[in-house]
Known about the structure:
There is one protein chain. With 343 residues, this protein is α/β, with parallel strands linked by helices. The chain folds into 2 domains: 167 residues, Nucleotidyltransferase, domain 5 (2-Layer Sandwich); 151 residues, ATPase, nucleotide binding domain (Nucleotidyltransferase, domain 5), CATH 3.30.420.40. Helix content is 34%, strand content 17%. Strand 9 and strand 10 form a beta hairpin. Helix 3 crosses helix 11, helix 7 crosses helix 8 and helix 8 packs across helix 10.
Amino acid sequence: xxxxxxxxxxxxxxxxxxxxxxxxxxxxxxxxxxxxxxxxxxxxxxxxxxxxxxxxxxxxxxxxxxxxxxxxxxxxxxxxxxxxxxxxxxxxxxxxxxxxxxxxxxxxxxxxxxxxxxxxxxxxxxxxxxxxxxxxxxxxxxxxxxxxxxxxxxxxxxxxxxxxxxxxxxxxxxxxxxxxxxxxxxxxxxxxxxxxxxxxxxxxxxxxxxxxxxxxxxxxxxxxxxxxxxxxxxxxxxxxxxxxxxxxxxxxxxxxxxxxxxxxxxxxxxxxxxxxxxxxxxxxxxxxxxxxxxxxxxxxxxxxxxxxxxxxxxxxxxxxxxxxxxxxxxxxxxxxxxxxxxx
Length: 343
């Protein structure tokens, strides 16, 4: 069972509030308390490495969460994994899957508002010929909606911070690089679901030639994990190891982080110049590193004659999950009381 989310949602605390990621309501240890007559929702953040899912109350407050390595293989076994995890979360709360009011899945893909088809997913193989919401909906007896994962992170970060005229951009630097936009209080997807595909920003001295050989986009080639490993010759080390060496004072590692932040500042300066958001929030495995954020701010200063307000994510690695449960709560509430959600 799929849900059309082409016209929803508007960012508003009317849809739900977040006290803190993973916070449970008062009760016995491990007990989940749900308000009678207000069905819970489930959010899923699907990544190439891990699958993170959480059950929230009708206000969007996260109560339970689970994490597991993402299943890869022919015929997209991760779709079965999502259904299994959703049923497990419902069971942990003492519920049947039929009692879940809404499931929202964040995926590292552009999701077309017209067709629901996913595309541009270089780090995770997903079916591109059928809507993912339909495929998961066939596995579960509850409404299912699918959204870009970074859009959901932006939605979660914006909730409770912006009024109807507010604007926020969320940029994730990690395995890949992505962006979600909330403009005038509304989540912006673009005509084909590709708004915020900053990975394809044409950077570099010869972008026309280089783009022909790029699989993930020139900006992602520069600041994503694969590009970092290649540019700085990490060998068997991870990007996390690079940051660890930099924190310990290793001069080449410190220089590499500075170069990475300098390159990343090009993308944020372009975003600020084009959109002029009130806030730019940076997250992801790389974006959440304090050293990276500090150097990013430093390198932004000479690029623009005006301020570029950059701040860290409120929710860190759970930003996508928080956004997923917030959107799920909004969609569930909009079906029962749509007038109450209008700004």
